[in-house]
Amino acid sequence: MEIGSDINETIEKVIINSLRKKFQSYNPETSHMPFHYRLLGKDRMTLFSFIQSLNTTFGTSIFEPVAETLAKLKHKQAKRRYVLGNKISKEAQKEIQNIINELTIGKNPDKKEEIERIRRVCQEGEIVKLKTTLVDFCVISYDDNIHLFDIKTAKPNIGEFKSYKRTLLEWLAIFFYENPEAKVNSYIAIPYNPYEPKPYERWTLKGMLDLENELMVAEEFWNFLGGEGAYEEVLNCFERAGIKLRPEIDEYFAKFK
Questions:
Q1: What are 89-111's pLDDT values in tens digits?
Q2: I want to staple 208 with a disulfide (CB 3.0 to 4.6 A). Which of 6, 133, 144, 165 is the partner?
Q3: Is 67:74 a contact under the CB 8 Å cutoff?
Q4: Helices 230-254 and 219-226 meet at what angle, rounded to 10?
Q5: Cα separation of 197 and 200, whole Å?
Q6: Which EC number applies (predicted)?
Q7: pTM for the complete prediction?
Q8: Cα(19)–Cα(88) distance, rounded to whole angstroms?
């Protein structure tokens, strides 16, 4: 699917505006590193520090608005920072813990089964009020399927998989409390493959995540949002935005020479 020129321009503007805002708010680290400065140059060290800072906010400041723009091409609705709700049943909490326990001792994850297990108890028992839950990104397709995404921009740490899984299941329980018959799923989305050109090391997530129904990496994620070929189109938008911004970037970091 080819993205129209107007959407391309919108995506490029999102990228450019996000990076400009980052420049305006960025304060270089004040730590003095005389050996690094003399070896590599203060401008390069400042650029390195800026990239590290940018990486921590890439998901919210760039990937999420780009994903929202792209998803509106082929889906009914797309919204970042989606307000999910603030109530969950104690029976759903118990069922989620049961699922986690089973996976911990070797049961294969089966998201479709897990969804129905949570649905069955989503309104049973005492209701617990939570802090309002926000989802990184939500897509509602034209067949009213709801897709909730937790966007991860770094390589997942194996020690965090259990908490990722719990979050995905809790999102379902919170959503089902208000909408028990809804068609909904939750996913981990990783916008690019850090191992490329090698395949993504999916085995590192095996055991907790249902890899077919709970994980989207690189092309899977962007093509789901915008159609076949969307991933390459988005990469091209980033490249064009970078070319347009290059004089501003060079001028900004020249101040630190």
A1: 999 999 999 999 999 999 999 99
A2: 165
A3: no
A4: 110
A5: 9
A6: 3.1.21.4
A7: 0.88
A8: 38
